[in-house]
Amino acid sequence: MSELSHLIGIALTSGQARPSRRSVRSACRCAMALLPIAVVMGAIAGCAPAPPVPTSNIGTITGYYLQYAGRHANASPPNADAFRRYIASLGVVDVDGAFVSSRDGQPYVIRYGIDLTGSPTLASLPPSDQPKIVILHEAEGMGGKKMIATHMGLTFEAAEPDSIR
Fold first, then answer.
1. Hey, CA dihedral for 74, 78, 82, 88, is it positive or negative?
2. What count of other Cβ atoms lies within 10 Å of the Cβ of residue 119?
3. Does 152 score more than 70 pLDDT?
4. d(CA 21, CA 111)
5. What is the distance between the alpha carbons of residues 49 and 45, in angstroms, rounded to a whole number?
6. Residue 99: count of CB within 10 angstroms of its CB
């Protein structure tokens, strides 16, 4: 490395003797040997992990919703008051907090009084082929995407929940 610095110094100063071919070749070999290391270091620096995405608490409220339906013949909660009373009966201390998204800080948009049973024809389909009924989703979401929960307990991030029944 000092040989390379020496060559650079010679090239920058005028009126000095020209470097020999041997020293130029040696400097080129040194530079070529260091090139892969520089490329790897540049790639590592360029591959910094993305900032963490805030986790969502949508699974918790989805679980309460599906528990309610399971204990009420697959009927969804009829309204917010009945759902809140049910969650409180489970011993949850912060009932109001369960209704607010941890990502956007807004209350979840919850669909009450919907039919979760489907038809016997739909029930015979494998789960992957059944339509996904949205039971709740974030109001605003993050980065143009909202967390969405379905009647089958699936939670995922998508641009708009309206594309799903």
1. positive
2. 8
3. yes
4. 80
5. 10
6. 19
